[in-house]
Amino acid sequence: MPNLGVYVHIPFCQSKCAYCDFYSLPNQPEATMNAYVKALAQHIEEAGKYIGKGSKGGIPADTVYVGGGTPVVLGAKRLDAVLAALRKNFNLSTSAEITVEANPGAVDARALKKLRHSGFNRISFGVQALQPELLAALGRGHTGEQAADAVREAADAGFQNISVDILYGVPGQTRAQLTETLRSVCTWRITHLSLYGLKLEPGTPLAEADPLLPKDDEQADMYLEAVELLAREGLRQYEISNFSRQGYICRHNYKYWTLEPYVGFGAAAHSDFGGKRYSFIKDIQAYIDGVRDSESLMEEMQAVPMEERAGEYVMLGLRTVNGVSSNEYTRLFKASFDSLENKLERCARWGLAETEGDRWRLTPKGFLVSNQIIGELLDANAKAN
Ligand code: SF4
Question: 4-256 adopts what CATH topology?
Fold first, then answer.
């Protein structure tokens, strides 16, 4: 069995960004944060009896990702307690990648040193943009200067693996601004960059405001130019939205794209383990009460049939530059790859996909229309099997 990834969801933020539809609440009282950490520790301990140190030959875990929300809002002491609970109850490998998400302005040099000392060895900052007008449009509570300072302070605190998130397609954003942002962050001591296209999620204040976004072809140019710029700066693309220096891919997120097992803890956390996908309730207080009273925490759970796994293999594998392998597909799912290959050959004629040996992958142009390509592939797959 492959090593396990462990995800912990911290649904607290300083304030709510205008585009955010993640499960996170701003301005929560200390008492709630304390109770939440206590519930997490209890939940981790209980799960550890079955899949961690408490079980016979518990599964080794080699990645931990503490995400949110803005986990650093909890403070270094509470995050230390979460990591201590994981170490105590799970077989965390000594070389585990242990990530914490942070926002500039939500963490200072002292807290960064403490986090590094606790054992977090990777930090991911939500930077998004550097221009004040774009940060204001997004409702971010920090400045570009604070982002640069936070990355410098994290590096000074001993973090050698630092990631930043950047958005493109922000209302009012120009190609020149995106280029300026990427050039600047590439001079910082980062090892990894995630580049996401802004999506207007229904119900968020930004979507309600119905802003003018950069046109589709403008967004496509932004993406393609960014891929080239980042490659020139030594940040190679390894997934649709992710770029890293040599040896610094996000090992935890890579598990999601290669169908490796992961377990989540916390309100709204997702898991894919033991052939089942499940998620916990999106409600902090219900999660705290549920753990305390040993009640069900499940929001949803489903067994994943083989055909669905085969579809996921294609859908997620084609997000990576490693792509999918026809031999591996046939070996894992006992199914023919022919119908998929026919479609991919057509994509190759349009410059959207390419092949090497038995592997197929999308080109950067193909990544831009990956939803359509993958949709067609899944349809072909469903008809063939
Ligand atoms: S910091 Fe992240 S999780 Fe929190 S509101 Fe903003 S986008 Fe959402």
Answer: TIM Barrel (3.20.20)
